[in-house]
Amino acid sequence: MAVRGSKELVADVEKSDIVREVEAFNSQWPESHLMGLLFKGYDGISADTFLELYDFALDGDTSNLLESSDWFDDAICACALVVSVFHAFDEISGYVGGHNAIDVVHDAALGRVMIDFARLGESADVGMSGLSLRQMSILCRMKEASVRNALSKDEQAPKGFKEGKQVFFEPLEAHQWMLQRRGYRPTELPVEERIQSYTGMNLWAGAYRGVSRHPSHCRDLVVRPQRAVGI
């Protein structure tokens, strides 16, 4: 099955879409050869980190996050890294690396963190002004046009605010509205004694703009086996 487009994935991204994108990249001979020159013992991009992030972003599974304060930041860094790698090969070999599913999961993860922190009375510094319409759509498993239409017909809907061409919403207000959507799975927040483990996790806004605080470590999360050398 072909790699699916971004608009199609917003409403129903699946783990198989992530695996398909990674496998499509790994199957390209020029890319594999060049990556082998860049990474000692390179045996392909691994989908594992992105699949873990999917569990959190779409299903609200906090198990990985509560086990390590660095897990979320590492996973977001991994997203930024793989997108950078795919873009690099767009330039080098003309291969258009599909990373739409990874982008969708990345967006959903940031959106969920903003909502959850707001529910706990905290603010999540992820380099965004609020929850975007796209993030609401992904988390509700709906098309953007459907969310926009539902918002316009609901007098109780949250009021968005514009920054440039994008519309954002206050996370807590958006969450209350999203609870009425069948596809939205709110996070089951940690019990009180573990809340600090959640809100105390490392959030590094620079990483969400594509700048990793530990580039070699984030490469290890994506590249098999874990013996990466500099790009």
From TrEMBL:
It comes from Litorivivens lipolytica. This is Uncharacterized protein. The lineage of its organism: Bacteria, Pseudomonadati, Pseudomonadota, Gammaproteobacteria, Litorivivens.
